[in-house]
Amino acid sequence: MKMIINGKKVDSESGKTFNVTDPATGKVIEAVPKATEKDIELAVDAAVTGQKIWAEIPVWQRVQVLRKFLDLVEVNKEDLAQTLCAENGKPISEARGEIGNIPIGFSGFIEHAKHYYGSIIPQGTEQGQDKNIQMVTREPIGVVACIIPFNFPCDLFDQKVAPALMMGNAAIVLPSSDNPLTLMKLTELLVEAGVPNGAIQCLTAPGAVKSAAVADPRVHLVTLTGSTEVGIDTAKIAAGNLTHSALELGGNDAFIVLDDGDVDLAVEELVWGRMYNTGQVCCASKRFLIHNSLKDEFAKKAVERIKKLKVGMPSDESTQIGCLISEKAAVKVEGEVARTVEQGGKIIMGGHRDGAFYEPTVIVDVPKTADVAKDMEIFGPVVPVIGFDTDEEAIEIANNSIFGLSSCVFSRDQKRAFKVATAMEAGGAVINGASFFRAFEQPFGGWKHSGIGTEGVFSTFDEMTRVKTIVLKNIL
Amino acid sequence: MKMIINGKKVDSESGKTFNVTDPATGKVIEAVPKATEKDIELAVDAAVTGQKIWAEIPVWQRVQVLRKFLDLVEVNKEDLAQTLCAENGKPISEARGEIGNIPIGFSGFIEHAKHYYGSIIPQGTEQGQDKNIQMVTREPIGVVACIIPFNFPCDLFDQKVAPALMMGNAAIVLPSSDNPLTLMKLTELLVEAGVPNGAIQCLTAPGAVKSAAVADPRVHLVTLTGSTEVGIDTAKIAAGNLTHSALELGGNDAFIVLDDGDVDLAVEELVWGRMYNTGQVCCASKRFLIHNSLKDEFAKKAVERIKKLKVGMPSDESTQIGCLISEKAAVKVEGEVARTVEQGGKIIMGGHRDGAFYEPTVIVDVPKTADVAKDMEIFGPVVPVIGFDTDEEAIEIANNSIFGLSSCVFSRDQKRAFKVATAMEAGGAVINGASFFRAFEQPFGGWKHSGIGTEGVFSTFDEMTRVKTIVLKNIL
Amino acid sequence: MKMIINGKKVDSESGKTFNVTDPATGKVIEAVPKATEKDIELAVDAAVTGQKIWAEIPVWQRVQVLRKFLDLVEVNKEDLAQTLCAENGKPISEARGEIGNIPIGFSGFIEHAKHYYGSIIPQGTEQGQDKNIQMVTREPIGVVACIIPFNFPCDLFDQKVAPALMMGNAAIVLPSSDNPLTLMKLTELLVEAGVPNGAIQCLTAPGAVKSAAVADPRVHLVTLTGSTEVGIDTAKIAAGNLTHSALELGGNDAFIVLDDGDVDLAVEELVWGRMYNTGQVCCASKRFLIHNSLKDEFAKKAVERIKKLKVGMPSDESTQIGCLISEKAAVKVEGEVARTVEQGGKIIMGGHRDGAFYEPTVIVDVPKTADVAKDMEIFGPVVPVIGFDTDEEAIEIANNSIFGLSSCVFSRDQKRAFKVATAMEAGGAVINGASFFRAFEQPFGGWKHSGIGTEGVFSTFDEMTRVKTIVLKNIL
Amino acid sequence: MKMIINGKKVDSESGKTFNVTDPATGKVIEAVPKATEKDIELAVDAAVTGQKIWAEIPVWQRVQVLRKFLDLVEVNKEDLAQTLCAENGKPISEARGEIGNIPIGFSGFIEHAKHYYGSIIPQGTEQGQDKNIQMVTREPIGVVACIIPFNFPCDLFDQKVAPALMMGNAAIVLPSSDNPLTLMKLTELLVEAGVPNGAIQCLTAPGAVKSAAVADPRVHLVTLTGSTEVGIDTAKIAAGNLTHSALELGGNDAFIVLDDGDVDLAVEELVWGRMYNTGQVCCASKRFLIHNSLKDEFAKKAVERIKKLKVGMPSDESTQIGCLISEKAAVKVEGEVARTVEQGGKIIMGGHRDGAFYEPTVIVDVPKTADVAKDMEIFGPVVPVIGFDTDEEAIEIANNSIFGLSSCVFSRDQKRAFKVATAMEAGGAVINGASFFRAFEQPFGGWKHSGIGTEGVFSTFDEMTRVKTIVLKNIL
């Protein structure tokens, strides 16, 4: 496939390419252009021009263009799902789900954009302002670089590209080099739907080259979902030009079951909250803090339940758990599990790797001092169980982390559940459900090293626009 | 005076001090502690503890504490004004005005905090969320470093400290080394009013030591008003810990008079918009773009009007224009005026310096290619007049700057005024008034190199809190 | 055609019918059932049941049903436009426009409903509430009677039925007896699209029978657009059961041209603002207050401009002005013009009636004491010109009316325009445009005898729901 | 005491008076003027003038006036409390509490008024509006008649007069004839604080004369708290002029304890929720629906707990339960208890009357068919216990009432609690607390025969203002 720069399907100006591989089979799917800094520059050139044209188009007409895009997605949905499955390793059923989310996510932003109102600060409410009316409006922020991770490329494309476009910005999509193909196709569909040249582009660039986009002073916002390490590097580069950045980064979410929690419900939520996408989820539940009186029951039932899940080739219709994004990723998980065992954990299920496949794994007796109980995020289907005695101890363990993405608590007592939820140093707190909860509406975002800013229909427009106050001075 | 750390009046642990000088007379007013990185660390230690205590106090009780502070300010207002006048060089009348703003600004934040509501994303509005209720709440962000500039120290103290405290945060005040005394006094009054130890502190620190506060990972937000250069450095350091930053930086605001503009009104607004605080205002009008048919009339009337202003010692009751913050600052202005003359401008009034005093100065025939017409911000009472022929040319000149703080346009025609206001790449656009407009309510903030984020009663709470979404999963 | 009760196409239980006539030709188009109070009772029975079913369907699924309705409208649009033209007398071009508005209006409500959030009043903001969280939610109001006038039946159907359905209510449509056919067809399409039985119904009922719906205690909201007389009667009946009522009633909007107003623009706006729909518009400009220095020029140019409009048979493609809704309506206009002449006006154009057709008419020298200058609303293409000398006099004349629907002012001076706009005792004030302005978003509603409540995407949901505060007491 | 009309303390023009009596002793406290329709007319005359003057005063200055009023209340608070106790019969401790609420309530409205923003509907969001900006503003509604009940005269004064004044309206206070004295004093203090003549007035008028205020077309809003019967009559009269009305009326709130509810907590909440103000509370819990497995325990514990309450003379410092507002009121309660017994209830505690005193009374075995279980609201300290078997049955009984003010449910299970709370056909649903919950912030208001509109800092301004949309047509 080609990149999209200035409305055209192009190769890299260098002529170089790199391969996209199916992680389940190791086979090359296709070669894609390897973008250079020069390509980035050309794309930003086009974005600057395209943004001005796109911003002149009224919101309701932008809606028509994006609705046409959704029609094209509908026509191509099976092809998109198969592409996503192949390049990502996620089960085909999950890939279909993610493609099926596109109309949900895009529609949210489309609709809300038409009812995104400005504000008036009336005369006379503040001393000294008796005759002045302040009109608070929202203007496009300009060129937006969208750096998108491998795990849910389409969901994040929805979260970033839809609001960027609806607010009159130009979006430059920078997919993960592991699996850019689906996003390249989606970008083509946006062009086909009528987004003007330069207003939507897609470049397949190595990480260092992505940084060139962040460093370009004509880029006004970088919206990135990725690791904390990459997030910090990006923030530093962006700071050099006072470029805005919105960062959704790593997490190590606590999954807390209090002594009155519903263990069966918790186990069922674990399946969704830790096994979905083979555990490669930023807000997956990653630390299972189970009251000591329940932890054996929980572990036992978790093993029983997980065993019922079918692990298999992603393309197989019945597969429920596929492989990781790459063998490299699986090797990393392998090392992290080993470290957890060294630090006191006992594996009672799983623990083996085969290529990019890593078995669903349950580790009990993990001490709260272990790395995984604090700052080590495992991006795979691993369930480390950590015991605790009191609500306070659970809160303390949960908050003893550099991360603060989301969290969850199971209790039958509403007061205790709220007490824990309120105490969580995290951007989310799910009561009686897994921390893996991300509605498109939700202002999703982490505290501490889990990010800056929130993302979702409820709030993204605030980040993708700039405030302008038009003052009617002495008008009254 | 002493610093305030953990509720105590203290010296620097190093025992070192530096002098605060009256810029109008060159006399030392008082020595203050020269904070070190160790002092910063102690302050952050105390802030972490104090913030937790303060956040537990309900909003309505925090209000009572801050209202008591306002009572203390009322009692001490003349002393505060004299201190501000002496250390800053601004006319005593303006110093009194700034102290008089404290109750206006604080009240705004106090009141709004009591009516700052959360949101509910109801079940069933998004596919897949039929049984889940999302409660979007706002939590304190934690420890806030408030870096405050010399020009309006109290106004910016209001803008930063009041919302930080109302939202349950701990504030560490870092005043300008040129004039920290008034803020040290205000901090003492907050302690006296009952803000707990550590929740409000004030350290007199050189710039490099301030950076230690920015670099401390336990500081969650840096709110800074200052130069773009310092802003960028701060942003870079903050990025290292994913510390939030809110930056109000430099500006070079255009003051546009269209061919149908009211010249007399424009000249009157110039007095306020360029001469107030001897021109040391971030959103002062700094580039006077006057239609060629009006520029001679404008320049002539401006000179006549400015001549009526009384320049004198700041402490003199009748003085309208005082000195700059330091002789160094005045020398800088002198150099910038010289450069403007080199680049084609002609001085028709003023142009001389005497110590920290710089005469009100009008420069005509400034070409649009001159530095002052683009990116050179002059922080003094200087009026460079640049001609233009068409509305489009005026817009082009105005936007041809790295800055985008505010702007203004004078026209009798509402449509033309809105057209220009809408085209301004800036956070503000005043119609028929100077760009120097900053209501406490206003979400004030710059575009491009003028900053990130907005500040004001309308919006600051969003920056001084973190979103938490509490999900009631399967509740219905 | 038949009525729709409980999902079925039915006759009146009495078997009686009445004729719907083409006002331009006097020919009967079709007979429709003449509903009785028994029919109303059956409909309310079905609505009570249907509402409960419909309210259980999540918002996003209701959206899918209404989008299917819009697809059906698209297929049937020419038939709907022809029906509307025939039964209403409006030019076919205007009828097509009104059908074309259906997707615009419905989409607005559809979209906004998906992002209509609740609020949280957090703990601790009010003394005594330190441990309580208040969740402010919106629930369906129940059964909504939609009483719709003849002049823009589809636009008002959009404004009433779309929000009623989106909020989970049952809607009973009660069209004007003059022209119910288009709405009967639209109701059929809603049923076809999948709105459950009873949740959408349409009854062709004489005014007195409509009152039975208002009087039924199981109807929770009456939303009516119509005359002030009918509005007051309705409000009285509704009061008996504490039934909510939203009333958009009569108007006699002032159209003010100040001495610096743009006469050409004003004349052009007059065409839209007074001649559209042959003047049968609630917020048409109905009193032309023209500064004495401009009134002759205005009258002359108005006559010239109006003469260019093509009066003709509504069904003729080139017709710009059709007939009134009935000969009776035209006779009423004839009488009102006669009264205006008696009271001092001079006809300089038009003034004749032919069946249901009434000529575009301009009357000058109308004294401000004339009925038309105050409380007599003429529902036809009549332009009474009233002179004035000062802005204050114009304001006084404009406000000297029992009505307060909308208003407008023409001035090149923004301050004067705002001064007049602010002084208007009316729900709208258009600057440099006719008072006939009604965006679907706008919270449209009159002051004084022009109504109670506002209607539009921005605000209607507030009227079509009931607030429920769920208190989590002592939760923290 | 005198009435306040147009800033003066006056008698009725008729010279007539009526007596205000202490219900606990039967002694006359003082005679007050008996207003006539002529007095009402004079007051409305003054209000029309006064409102215009008051509306011209900027919001921040209105705040200063009301803050001065609060200072005066502080000085007079014990006198006000004693007056309220004497004329009302409520315990002095409760009277002090109600006076103590004045600063809480007024401050809420004062603060929120300064941050009550308008909205902008931006260009281009709706098809056809590409060049128009809509500014949605809020204007004073005009003259507001405040009809205030006997039970919490000061709380309702806060809820009605504070927002009326803050929004620039004139308020005419119409207290209950039983106990007008405290409100007369408060009105005097508002005049003393500087509210202009006519902008605040107080008339002591019999019910029929109050209707004259409702009927005056120059009154724009009637805000009434009272019985449903009076509310309906008022609504009918208001309808005649399209006068807005906001009605907080009767209630018969269900207090539901599910089988897993905390009986001890429920009993404790009963004390507050049914005995406060001797049960004369609109949203008191009035129907105790207790699961059959718990009802005996509940009744027994309720009796024990209530016995600890001290019944006595209202003026006695230790009294916890005083008398009713009048002997007539007590006789009415006596009859209602008798009817409940006739219909199957058994009194297990209390049941006797002594003058205006009515004993705290518990009635068990009340069948769900009894009047008290449906539409008979008892305004006194009576606890009728009704059993049920399933959650569904509890919901059915609760909703089988013409009323829908508030409600509550006790359950340890969050899901069941939300299910019941959501099912309540009422404006409030308290989880694990009595239905008697009314924060000043809360948008308090009933469904069905319990009222129209909501009242509270969160929402009242919407009812006490009129929307005006200023359209900047073709501005862009």
From TrEMBL, chains A, B, C, D:
Keywords linked to the UniProt accession: Oxidoreductase
Pfam families assigned: Aldedh
First and last residue of the signal peptide: none
EC number in record: 1.2.1.97
Domain Aldehyde dehydrogenase intervals: 10-470
Active site (UniProt): E248
Gene3D superfamilies: Aldehyde Dehydrogenase, Chain A, domain 1, Aldehyde Dehydrogenase, Chain A, domain 2
Enzyme class: oxidoreductase
Catalytic activity line of the entry: (2S)-3-sulfolactaldehyde + NAD(+) + H2O = (2S)-3-sulfolactate + NADH + 2 H(+)
GO MF term (any one): lactaldehyde dehydrogenase (NAD+) activity
The keyword Lipoprotein appears for this protein: no
InterPro entries, sorted: Ald_DH/histidinol_DH (IPR016161), Ald_DH_C (IPR016163), Ald_DH_CS_GLU (IPR029510), Ald_DH_N (IPR016162), Aldehyde_DH_dom (IPR015590), ALDH-related_metabolic_enz (IPR051020)
Task of the protein: Part of the sulfo-TAL (or sulfo-SFT) pathway, a D-sulfoquinovose degradation pathway that produces sulfolactate (SL). Catalyzes the oxidation of 3-sulfolactaldehyde (SLA) to sulfolactate (SL).
Family statement drawn from the similarity comment of this UniProt entry: Belongs to the aldehyde dehydrogenase family.
PANTHER family: ALDEHYDE DEHYDROGENASE (PTHR42991)
Protein name from the UniProt record: 3-sulfolactaldehyde dehydrogenase
Organism: Aminicella lysinilytica
